[in-house]
């Protein structure tokens, strides 16, 4: 039975109305949602009665979906009808159009993105809230990353409070940082409490120092000490990847004792495929696999089942080396120890998958000189600044190639055909060199390429360059002779292509190795240097031979 909300909930204050109106006016959706969520449904109904139609629609979109039926029950019949008209709902106000009806969602990401964009365009944000409530946090993160900055902020406000931390975990670093810095501190701390320790460390490292310190201060002493210990290690090290939720046991206890302890726990940490055996001083001694515990007799000692030959991961070991070990040995988890062999924590497969994904994205983006630009809708100024550096470097290399061409200006003026054929030489060398460069960078990333086998790879790539050079030199020479009717030009371009492909093969191996030795990321700068080398060598060989033979 419904009645007037003013009679049901008389404690509505002018402050509540003013706060809600201010939040709506400043697009502070998340704050409005928290304010309304803390209120009794009758009070929410009273607030809605005091607002203008536009304010009422905006406020209604912030009402929690599960609270909607209760709020509707406290609205007058006239207000329910008015609200339905304002929202352009065809069905009766009491129907599921204004409630949480569960309708199937198309699994296609393109369809889901289209639904979100339509809802944003029409200002019907509650549709986004309902869609998000049915999606996995990883899919929500993907949709948020697909939106421009302004629309992303509006959609982010529609993520339910308890799911905020889970969505933050799946966002790429740059997007996560931007959304987190836009949140008010209270809400950010609340979301941080829902993150696993390793994910929380990643978030704190992404945030400004002052904000990260405030999050730490909001944690209890024990949690703060754990986080500070993890933050003391570099982000790209095993210590930066590890979590401290491991279960450690002593070697001198019985399996039955361990099982009784496990039954006392409410839950086991995720990916608990092994327990770690330590001594009284917390030094790592070995592992005890979970499957052995489940099948062993209760009176069996841990020392009889433990494996002492399982090597731990050193806390300062690079994260890419950790990822290689997980890949090679099919690990789900591994212990992390300090230099003295004391157990610090563990690394799990979900953290390693994130490392592998980041490395793949870094390599792909780096080949275009984009480095860490994981947000395709990043601000124009920030993106321009990143790309301008590599455009400037590329301009310098282009001027080097142009300078080489300028040395043979007289040759080009007398033999116009050379200008027509010249791009072919540079293009063939660039493609061949890029193939070798990609192979070498992959070998360096996976650890397959080291000092002992680089000479073999260099000889192999030189052989490939020689064979492909001979093949395509003959093809291009034949086409040049048919085109211009000049045997000399055909011979010149054939020799130039052969020399450039050989040079490309050697440069494709040598450049990334040299850059790595100098501490430069070959995935980021290798292609720029390689293109410069193949262009200069190609132009110099082609035009130099033409000058010697034709003039």
From TrEMBL:
UniProt keyword list: CBS domain, Cell membrane, Magnesium, Membrane, Metal-binding, Transmembrane, Transmembrane helix, Transport
One term of GO molecular function: metal ion binding
SMART domains: MgtE_N (SM00924)
Subcellular location field: Cell membrane; Membrane
Pfam family, one: CBS
CBS domain sequence ranges: 306-364
Main location: membrane
Gene Ontology cellular-component terms listed: plasma membrane
InterPro entries listed in its UniProt record: CBS_dom, CBS_dom_sf, Mg_transptr_MgtE_intracell_dom, MgtE_N_sf, MgtE_transporter, SLC41_membr_dom, SLC41_membr_dom_sf
Domain of life according to the entry: Bacteria
Segments traversing the membrane: 388-408, 414-441, 462-485, 491-515, 527-550
Keyword Transmembrane: yes
Record flagged with keyword Lipoprotein: no
Membrane-topology descriptor: Multi-pass membrane protein
Summary of subunit composition and partner proteins: Homodimer.
Function: Acts as a magnesium transporter.
Family stated for the protein in its record: Belongs to the SLC41A transporter family.
Protein name (Swiss-Prot/TrEMBL): Magnesium transporter MgtE
Species for this entry: Thiorhodococcus mannitoliphagus
